[in-house]
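A quick aside before the break. I want you to see a complete sequence-to-structure record at least once, exactly as it would be stored in a machine-readable document. Don't worry about memorizing anything.
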Amino acid sequence: MDPSPSTVTSLLAAWSQGDRGSMDQLFTLLYRELRQIAGNALNSRQRAVPLQPTELLNEAYLRLSAAAGLRVEDRAHFLALACRAMRMVLVDSARAANRDKRGGGAPIVTLGAASAVAVTHSSATLLDLDTALNKLFALDPGPARMVELHYFAGLSYAEIASEVDLSEATVHRHLRLAKAWLARELAQTAVPLSS
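That is the input. The structure line, written in tokens, reads:
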């Protein structure tokens, strides 16, 4: 059952005015969609974070609920904020994995124990992508948001077009240019961007 747009709009308005309870109701109403976005984010290429979709969603919820009073325009804007919160959780997890990989002040352990916390190259890739994506947000937030929705949330071009209220062809064009820009940025750090 899809929540009515008026219900979502009224909950967003209440949350924007600082009502924390409305966030709980909003997450309950949109849980299935948010859970799917979290699953897509974790199933995306090059994920090396040890999170389950529910854990990712819970962490995103905590970050968003702490931001009560933030002005949210509509459902699409809220989903983009949720996607951004999930991205930040993934980035923080990758940073922690890199910190752990490099010792992070932890006591020395045996080789057998260390293999249990092995970290792949993917966490560094995620951090490089995050840095490049932040640069793109500074230059042109529209295409950067589309990349975020596609790469981190796993939305298709049609779903992104619906979320940002543009044609699918326009989304395709923006994503093609954004991916080319990101590929050039990532090439400077020798990290390939797959499509």
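Two observations worth writing down. The chain has one domain: 5-187. The chain has ten helices and no strands. We'll return to this after the break.
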